[in-house]
Design brief:
The chain has 127 residues and is mostly helical. It has one domain. 87% of the residues lie in helices and 0% in strands. The chain contains 3 helices and no strands. Helix 1 packs antiparallel against helix 2 and helix 1 crosses helix 3.
Length: 127
């Protein structure tokens, strides 16, 4: 009889140990999965933040490009009209104006409105 009780108790203890090990393994797996989920969420947030920063940077660069184009257009018009009014232009001043017009027209996508003004400036006699 004692052997039967001992076998039953041993079986019960073994079942309890197995259940405890199973619970421990399940807890560790759930903890690892939760940690991986948090890490993935953090990476997703960083990616979204980076994309937002890139979008803002593109908008900023575009705004600066438009601003630079407006400033160059105004400066070329002002200088060109003054040189035409004076009737001549210095070689270095003409080269500076040509360089500004090239940047305005080619690099910044100017619309060609200053081409006739530049043609008039190019016909001016050099000092």
């Amino acid at each position: 009889m004692n052997d039967i009780i001992l076998c039953l108790l041993s079986g019960g203890v073994a079942a309890a140990v197995i259940k405890s090990v199973e619970s421990l393994v399940t807890w560790r797996l759930n903890r690892k999965a939760a940690k991986e989920d948090r890490e993935e969420a953090r990476r997703d947030k960083e990616e979204q933040d980076a994309q937002a920063a890139i979008g803002q940077l593109r908008r900023d660069v575009s705004s600066l490009r438009v601003g630079e184009q407006v400033i160059l257009r105004d400066r070329i018009k002002y200088l060109g009209k003054n040189y035409i009014k004076s009737g001549s232009i210095d070689f270095d001043d003409r080269q500076d104006l040509v360089d500004m017009h090239r940047v305005y027209h080619d690099d910044l996508g100017g619309n060609g409105n200053l081409d006739s003004l530049m043609a008039d400036v190019m016909e001016l006699p050099l000092k």
